[in-house]
Queue: 2 jobs
Job 1
Amino acid sequence: MIKNRSLTSYIEDDEEEEAKKFIEEELGFPLPKALGKRLIVKIYIRPEELTTFVNNEGKTVSIYIPEIYLENDKYSNFAALVLSVGDQCFKGDEYKENGPGCKVGDWITIARNHGGQQYFHRGVTVQNIPEDAIYDVIQDPSYVERV
Amino acid sequence: MEGTICFDNKEKWSFEKEYGFNPPRPLGARICIEQYVKSEESDAGIKLAKSEMSKRLDVADCIVGRVVKIGSACFKSEDFKHWDKADLPEVGDWVTFKITPGWKKYGPPGKGVCVITMFDDAINEKIEDPSYVSRDL
């Protein structure tokens, strides 16, 4: 029986360690550690390759997003991957029924102007955000687009 | 999205059933609302084409929407102590709300739906029919 102590997280309880290991392997370094009521999240940057198709001549063609657009993602995207959750996060009354709002490995949307600080951690664009900067947990970061 | 009226939850509506993918899951006292899009067809059956700019303005001006998902701490604060329980919105209800920034398109490519996540205190009231309401500038 799969258990999840959170109503909003997509990561089941028994997948938490696996998710951490998987992200560490993908990034190639141990995850940073958030303190108190803060979280460290990795800003979602779209994959460089947009689409691949075979043209009339039978050649495989790939379309890439220009680098400038991907650079812009760092400063405008509000979908992010949770890398670390502080030990005091989600302990308030607000989360009594919900359980932890999100876990390491969840994709979330964040308020970009809510006390977060953005920096590079080993070349990866991350933000250190307070727990109340999280709007919601989402299924897929590519689903989200600013209107 | 010009859906059925869900006043008094006569019909159980769910985002998953309607669109085939999971909605955002708001945290704490936040609530996720889907934009109400007015019909592009007039009463006489004439289709009125809208420009992209006009559609964008509709989003920015939107004050009516359908409740998609409710955070676990919604409507539990002191502010709602005196509200009648029957007046509290549930998933599928049409509501009016304060103008709030932060609209996003959510969904797989080509199937995106305009949604917004806001605090529960931005909700004004539950309404019977979204077409009854429009913004008076």
Job 2
Amino acid sequence: MLVSILHRITGSGLSVVGLAVLTWWLWALADGPDAYQDFAGHAQSWYGLVVLVGLTWAFWQHLLSGIRHLVMDIGAGFELRINKLFAVLTIAGGLFLTALTWFLIMGVNQ
Amino acid sequence: MSAQDLSTPLGRVRALGSAHHGGGHWLRERLTSAALLLLGTWFLASLVLLPALDHKTVADWLKSPSGAVPMALFVIIAFIHAIDGLKVVVDDYVHDAGNNAFLNGLILFAGIGAAALALFSLARVAFGAGA
């Protein structure tokens, strides 16, 4: 239940905020180094990092719970115990992959 | 169901969902999700694997076909999936026909508009005008 609602919330967030940031990023990249620097300044500020880390988490959470929904679409995984285990795994996996992604990005930037 | 009802099970349930149609929409949502499984992971992995994220490094990456083509696919399919997904949420929670049509129309227009902007920007980078 929680994971299913999270799937909708993260999907809506990625659609609205994620695609807006993606479009802004590509626009700034095309506009030149000055516009890109402006974007990077916002991206590296505390609020920018909150948004980007949030989007990263939303991406991995949505991807994993999406896989769970695809499995359930083919009629598998409805046994209560397995279903619950899979749901818990999407949350743990989403947090782990978010931490891993940012650990690697920070490593690149330093 | 009476004994005289010769319609198929599919025929009896068609158009009864919250959108009143949508088998194709349902399938497209799943097919685009499978594509994004690859493209989205490719996108994040590429950002992580680039030696730096400054303007020149990122622009050079998106000038190469191996960067520009998957990026174009990612943008197109992500927007289709987003428009499809938001429609499901709107159809489930906004039942007034007028508000529903207005919101879905807004999402469609904004989504296609932003997608055009993103693809135009990517083309400028890929073809070198934005250096």
